């Protein structure tokens, strides 16, 4: 890969995260701050392969910012999503062997009754033009507040709860004897002495 492209990748910004995600929001900003904080703590660079690994405990907008800044993706096998509903992320630096788990501080977000009320109206499609504009104004303000906050003010640093995941593996495919479709053998289920795909295993009568 040419040096100029590497330089551009290593300097990805919040605007790049917006372009990838599709819009700016509080969740995206939280993910961006987490990625920058982890990069600082672990001396991380953009991951061309699996040099950086992330386990996220949410499937929220935060994850898209982390993918953009650190180059962690499901396709490369260095992004694992556990949808446990927690704004928490474990970052691993394979080169140094270091890792941290960042957990959003429980006292970071202060409730904004006006914004909460307007969000319900916007999401239900009942907001007036003025209410929608006010909601987006408050949302933009929240994003700016998050982006101007230091990582250690947003996240607590904790020890990882599990060791670094194994590197991604490539497995052979087989033909499921029930549906006749090709499936990765590592994702098959043993049933009646045969290896079948998970869909067929769940729907087998």
TrEMBL record:
Transmembrane feature ranges: none
Gene3D superfamilies the record matches: 3.30.1330.130
Highest rank taxon of the organism: Archaea
InterPro entries noted in UniProt: FmdE, FmdEsu_dom, tRNA_methyltr_O
Domain Formylmethanofuran dehydrogenase subunit E: 20-149
UniProt cross-references to PANTHER family, sorted A to Z: DEHYDROGENASE, DEHYDROGENASE-RELATED
Designated name of the protein: Formylmethanofuran dehydrogenase subunit E domain-containing protein
Species of provenance: Methanimicrococcus stummii
